[in-house]
Write a structure and sequence with these properties.
Blueprint: H1 3-21, E1 28-33, H2 35-38, H3 49-65, E2 69-73, E3 82-85, H4 86-91, H5 108-116, E4 120-123, E5 130-134, E6 147-150, E7 156-157, E8 160-167
Helix pairs in contact: 1-3, 3-5
């Protein structure tokens, strides 16, 4: 597997998602990733710290440059808890949980987040403003209502299917209500 290609693919996806999602300073992007799927294997069967490293190294600097926070979803063995920076946990008043993700419980991507984040902490849930799901890891529970798929020309990272999403506020009020044009995007 060409790790530089994986990094390039995720960077292209992040760049396009950031353009489509109109995220603001201090918004949160959630990442779910099966490195097994990126390698063309069944989810949870053949995790790769090298693939996780290529993905995190590709995403993190881009988000930091835009002042967007990254939340990394752990695998189902940790009930899809998330690794975030402690300042995000404090700012969003998220409840921390006591666990240290490792290769067999948390997954490779969470292990690398723990390594690359300045002051990592694990939280049980989050309401992110946008997301990237690599390998059908089911990040939907961590997106704010209303989640909207972002259709990009990037369909795979490595061998894994990838889905990009943004969120928007709920449209309320029914047929008599008026909405700004930006609410429907």
């Amino acid at each position: 597997m060409d790790l530089n290609k994986i990094t390039s693919e995720i960077q292209e996806g992040v760049r396009k998602l950031l353009l489509a999602a109109n995220l603001e300073k201090d918004d949160i992007l959630v990442l779910g990733c099966s490195t097994s799927e990126v390698l063309g294997e069944k989810i949870g069967s053949n995790g790769s710290l090298e693939v996780a490293d290529a993905i995190i190294r590709g995403i993190l600097p881009m988000l930091k440059e835009q002042n967007i926070h990254l939340a990394v979803q752990c695998c189902e063995h940790l009930n899809r808890a998330l690794v975030v920076e402690k300042k995000v946990q404090k700012e969003y008043r998220l409840d921390p949980v006591t666990v240290i993700p490792w290769y067999h419980a948390g997954g490779s991507i969470a292990v690398k987040a723990m390594e690359y984040f300045e002051d990592p902490v694990v939280v049980e849930k989050i309401q992110a403003h946008a997301g990237i799901d690599i390998g059908q890891t089911l990040i939907g529970m961590h997106l704010r209502p209303v989640a909207v798929p972002v259709r990009l020309d990037i369909k795979k990272i490595g061998e894994a299917n990838v889905v990009f999403a943004r969120t928007r506020p709920k449209l309320i009020g029914g047929e008599r209500a008026h909405y700004p044009d930006t609410a429907k995007k």
